[in-house]
Task: inverse folding
């Protein structure tokens, strides 16, 4: 809950109407009364430490005053730590100005005393509010249970819109004896001030008195008149040539880009070094104000330039507090068509972009000769090495894609041969300089890389997901900005920055390093928005999915985002159902009702069927389920007559570990599996009946011999050598080591020899042979496996 004091007439719910009360100074506990001490003694409140804030007035809670008022009533802010009253905070009124109905105590209420100009307090400093009267027993204030601890509050220059629960005070503003700034007389005072200063805006003339009169070089009469003469001449010429419609010559209209006026201005200030900052931030052709004003139209045309000039005049004087406060800027620039919000937004934007305008306190801005951190960061960014930026960008992209990755990733391939032809779904991240447009070179290249691994056709093109960056420099710009802030942080830690920066600016460096890194991470998500994958229905075999904008704060990884996008596009599923396989059954295999599992698996991996996160694991799980539920059957060992050595169908169970994706293992349609299963049962029954009747044709010679009366078959003795030889297709080479060799090693002894025959160009033979010999050496087979060359 906040306390607010009205600062102006206006919308009750608007922030510009209310000034925020400093909570450390606020005391509203009314336990007792306190008669104000008589000069030279002061009635002093308890100490409070509000910190480095800017205030424009203070209030005390009046209980009553004398029925016969005499003398004056003064209130001031006292610096307890420094041992002196705060300059510019003493306000004196007549006791007769204190409102009271003459009968009831507490009929006066809060009384607000406004300073001539805002005052900025110091951090880590104790203050108190003091009051005194020139005659005895004239004013009584409210206090809490502690003697002299009067009720009080300070109004800051910060503004806020009221919310439920806030305390809101609407008070007249006393600035001197008999000069309460109420709503009625405030308008009269302002009207007289505007009339007196015409054709100048009051802020244009008073700035020399308020801010410049203590400058050693400032000629208060002659210097001011010389500048105003040039100013009027320029304003008349501009008004005639450009049909300008400003009713007054405002502070923001100063012709600082005119050489003669600028020379006079800098001469009065006694600081010629300001010219660099003026050209950079305010008046130059390529200044930051000009860039911000590029799209401004109507009454807001050149609003940033006008605000920048006002900051220059308000903060470059000789006063101790060289700050342009928001109320000053609003009064100097605001008008019927320029709201205070527009002024506030303009000065914030200019301070964010500018090199010589910095924020001071909660509502102050200063223009000076020392560059801000923005200038230092810009210099560091200009000196970055291109290779360093590229390395940092690649490292950032890698970190984002590998963070909580749900899919394997391959980073920055230069050629399609660098991307393995593997079965798992794989994200291939293209380097940031290879952007993806609609029909450009990158798309044609991806089409080729999807089809070929080097010069060899890919077996599993559907497993590749190519992720490419959108056109533009956004990612590189944000990485450069991040690296520049990192260098500034390093220079600051090492104490090598060329200028001094205050504590707030130093604290900002660490914040900016973190924020710019987060921004660069977000830009990786926003830039890598295109995913290309194999699609036979497209003319070039490539389908591109736009992931749209994303950000690193999302509750998923980058690869997870790709997975979700594929699901939304219906090109990726977690599993597969029996009905889907039935619908996709190849017409060429409809008559046989048998689909080789190697072909089925290849259809998923090539992109002909839907993509699965793990094809092998999904099929090993689902096919035994299909067998158990009777949706499909499985067979192996095809015979010439169209039957199979083994058929699995309900109620048979199929162990997933025994399922192999080979060309001689088949997925059977339900009707085919039923027929084969029924035929197998009839054949077994016939075979059993024939054996029982002694039919020699039913069981073969061995059965006849074994069943001959009085005959005992011979049992083989000794050992035999079983030799396996023949051609092995490349697709099952890996499974020989996992399935065949363990079975053979169960014998008493096992020996193996190899014969490989590789055909290649004669020109490549020498290099190829050297690589093979090195591989044999690594396997410790250099002495047992020999190489020879033959002519085909």
Result:
């Amino acid at each position: 809950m906040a306390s607010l004091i009205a600062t102006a007439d206006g919308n009750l719910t608007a922030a510009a109407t209310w000034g925020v009360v400093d909570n450390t100074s606020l005391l509203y506990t009314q336990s007792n009364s306190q008669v104000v001490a008589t000069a030279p003694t002061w009635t002093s409140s308890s100490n409070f430490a509000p910190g480095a804030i800017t205030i424009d007035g203070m209030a005390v809670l009046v209980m009553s005053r004398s029925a016969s008022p005499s003398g004056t009533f003064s209130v001031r802010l006292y610096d307890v730590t420094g041992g002196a009253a705060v300059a510019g905070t003493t306000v004196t009124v007549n006791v007769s100005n204190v409102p009271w109905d003459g009968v009831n105590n507490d009929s006066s209420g809060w009384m607000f005393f406004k300073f001539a100009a805002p005052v900025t307090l110091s951090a880590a400093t104790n203050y108190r509010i003091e009051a005194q009267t020139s005659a005895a027993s004239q004013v009584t204030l409210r206090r809490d249970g502690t003697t002299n601890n009067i009720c009080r509050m300070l109004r800051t220059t910060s503004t806020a819109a009221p919310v439920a629960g806030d305390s809101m005070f609407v008070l007249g503003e006393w600035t001197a004896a008999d000069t309460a700034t109420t709503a009625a007389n405030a308008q009269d005072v302002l009207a007289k001030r505007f009339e007196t200063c015409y054709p100048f805006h009051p802020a244009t003339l008073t700035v020399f008195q308020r801010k410049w009169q203590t400058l050693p070089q400032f000629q208060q009469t002659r210097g001011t008149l010389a500048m105003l003469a040039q100013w009027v001449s320029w304003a008349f010429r501009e008004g005639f040539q450009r049909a300008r419609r400003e009713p007054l010559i405002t502070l923001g209209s100063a012709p600082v880009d005119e050489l003669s006026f600028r020379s006079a201005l800098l001469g009065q200030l006694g600081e010629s070094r300001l010219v660099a900052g003026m050209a950079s931030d305010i008046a130059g052709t390529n200044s930051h104000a000009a860039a911000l004003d590029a799209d401004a139209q109507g009454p807001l045309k050149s609003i940033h330039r006008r605000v920048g000039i006002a900051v220059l005049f308000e903060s470059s004087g000789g006063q101790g507090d060289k700050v342009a406060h928001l109320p000053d800027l609003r009064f100097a620039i605001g008008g019927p068509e320029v709201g205070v919000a527009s002024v506030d937004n303009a000065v914030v934007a200019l301070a964010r972009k500018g090199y010589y305008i910095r924020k001071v306190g909660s509502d102050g801005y200063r223009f000076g000769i020392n560059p801000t951190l923005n200038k230092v960061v810009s210099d560091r960014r200009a000196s970055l090495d291109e290779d360093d930026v590229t390395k940092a960008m690649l490292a950032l992209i890698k970190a984002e894609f590998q963070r909580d990755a749900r899919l394997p990733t391959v980073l920055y391939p230069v050629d399609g041969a660098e991307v393995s032809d593997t079965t798992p779904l794989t994200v291939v991240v293209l380097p940031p300089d290879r952007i993806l447009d609609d029909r450009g070179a990158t798309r044609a290249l991806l089409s080729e890389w999807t089809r070929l691994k080097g010069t060899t056709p890919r077996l599993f093109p559907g497993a590749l997901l190519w992720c490419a960056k959108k056109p533009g420099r956004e990612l590189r710009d944000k990485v450069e900005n991040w690296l520049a802030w990192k260098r500034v942080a390093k220079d600051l830690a090492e104490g090598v920055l060329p200028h001094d920066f205050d504590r707030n600016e130093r604290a900002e460096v660490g914040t900016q390093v973190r924020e710019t890194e987060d921004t660069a991470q977000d830009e990786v998500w926003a830039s890598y928005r295109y995913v290309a994958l194999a699609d036979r229905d497209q003319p070039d075999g490539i389908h591109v999915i736009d992931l749209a904008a994303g950000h690193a704060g999302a509750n998923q990884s980058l690869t997870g985002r790709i997975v979700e996008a594929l699901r939304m596009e219906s090109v990726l599923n977690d599993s597969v159902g029996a009905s889907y396989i039935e619908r996709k059954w190849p017409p060429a295999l409809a008559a046989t009702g048998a689909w080789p599992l190697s072909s089925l698996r290849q259809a998923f991996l090539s992109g002909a069927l839907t993509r699965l996160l793990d094809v092998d694991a999904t099929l090993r799980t689902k096919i035994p389920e299909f067998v158990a539920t009777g949706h499909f059957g499985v067979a192996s060992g095809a015979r010439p007559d169209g039957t199979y050595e083994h058929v699995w169908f309900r109620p048979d169970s199929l162990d997933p570990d025994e399922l192999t994706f080979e060309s001689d293992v088949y997925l059977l349609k339900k009707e085919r599996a039923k027929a084969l299963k029924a035929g197998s049962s009839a054949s077994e029954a016939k075979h059993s009946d024939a054996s029982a009747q002694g039919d020699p044709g039913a069981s073969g010679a061995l059965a006849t011999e074994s069943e001959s009366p009085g005959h005992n078959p011979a049992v083989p003795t000794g050992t035999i050598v079983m030799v396996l030889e023949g051609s092995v297709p490349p697709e099952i080479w890996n499974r020989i080591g996992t399935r065949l060799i363990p079975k053979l090693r169960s014998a008493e002894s096992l020996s193996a020899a190899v014969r490989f025959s590789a055909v290649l160009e004669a020109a490549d033979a020498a290099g190829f042979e050297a690589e093979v010999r090195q591989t044999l050496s690594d396997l410790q087979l250099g002495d047992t496996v020999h190489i020879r060359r033959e002519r085909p």
Q: What stands out?
A: Residues 684-713 have pLDDT under 50 and may be disordered.
